[in-house]
Amino acid sequence: MPARRSPEPHERQRDPERTRQRILEAAAAEFGEHGYAGARTRAIAERAGVNQQLVSYYFGGKEGLYRAMSQQWEQRREGLAPPGTPLPDQLRNFALEALRSPAGVRMFAWSGLQWTGPDDDPDRAERSRMLGGGVDQLRELQAAGRLPAEVDPACLQVMLMAACMATTTLPHVIEGLTGADPRSPAFVAHFADQVAVLARLIGLDPQEPQTS
Amino acid sequence: MPARRSPEPHERQRDPERTRQRILEAAAAEFGEHGYAGARTRAIAERAGVNQQLVSYYFGGKEGLYRAMSQQWEQRREGLAPPGTPLPDQLRNFALEALRSPAGVRMFAWSGLQWTGPDDDPDRAERSRMLGGGVDQLRELQAAGRLPAEVDPACLQVMLMAACMATTTLPHVIEGLTGADPRSPAFVAHFADQVAVLARLIGLDPQEPQTS
DNA sequence: AGGTTTGTCAATCACATGATTAATTGACTG
DNA sequence: CAGTCAATTAATCATGTGATTGACAAACCT
After folding, report:
1. At what angle do helices B171-178 and A153-164 cross, to 10 degrees?
2. What is the CATH number of the domain that holds B41?
3. Which PANTHER family match (chains A, B) (predicted)?
4. A132 and A106 in one domain?
């Protein structure tokens, strides 16, 4: 009998960490597809291949699971925009995120509609920390005179983010307007390019290394 | 006793048309706030001040009510963009819609996330009918050489729509970035102006009556 | 090995939800 | 005024839902 002595964590029959992770992944998928109200705890357990009770055991119920998972996603989002990247590319990358982790983008969209106010928003801190950078870049651009004074950088940033998420938030509009499948890799890529084009149109190009 | 003979419809104790309408309005509010899955039939009945059963009586249940109401909203949306209006103003108006009928805009946003495909989309027809105009204007603009060839007019239109809806779809981002209340009339108005500014930045201004 | 803790499961509960049924009330007809 | 139909209500149902309970089994400790 091959009764091994010290099984590697990933081979163990009982691996709480792995189970936790599986539940979180399943939750992201389910919540992403149906939103908080539409998601079913049973469905999450099934997706994860575990017993439903474990959701309560590890996260204290549906709400706790939602919080844990959304927080995890907010943190993951922080690494999304490397500081040095030119804005058009940064935006294109964000638009492409709909391809890399559709569930994450969808969750982000749901959370916007569910948002009720600054209070009871557990992810407020992570979010504002993550979003500061983009606005700063726009402010610099404006200070350099490359953006009209009438532009409010924060608003512009928000509008561009909304634009990037359109394949997720407005698929019905896209389908009705172009006939294309808003979620197909081909279209998302095309759309991401168009976001970059828009950014360039506004004049967010990286300037050639300073003439004066 | 003032037993009047022909009471005006709105004074009658029993007025099916009025009841129908009250239910539809209540439904818009409830569905707008919580989305389809989150909305409660009981809450709709209470808002409307009628018995819950009437929802089934008039609309055949929650789903029927949702369909009826969303269709009504799609139709109402058609009158939103008068043909002659310059694009920047048209966009500003759309952004201001978050003030005039928040429920309508929110419903539109929910429907995007719930959207599963061209099939089982009852409002497809109305939507595409309503959206055609904007893209045409952009195409003309492009044909006139006032918009780079690399721009895909349909995508641009979608991105601008998404931007207009940002006070509704990304309130958490707005709050975290500006500290302002994303739903306050003051901010929505400011944001709508910024949308117009963006439109002008892209060059969607109405051209002064042709020089050549 | 024996006992304790921790991870997992099956079975079940209490409750909210959407729907149904049947009764009631008001309006219109002849 | 009786009778009929439409509008509205109250009471109840079947079911899906998230949560709980208690058994039990694998790992850990000595």
Report:
1. 150
2. 1.10.10.60
3. HTH-TYPE TRANSCRIPTIONAL REPRESSOR SCO4008, TRANSCRIPTIONAL REPRESSOR
4. yes
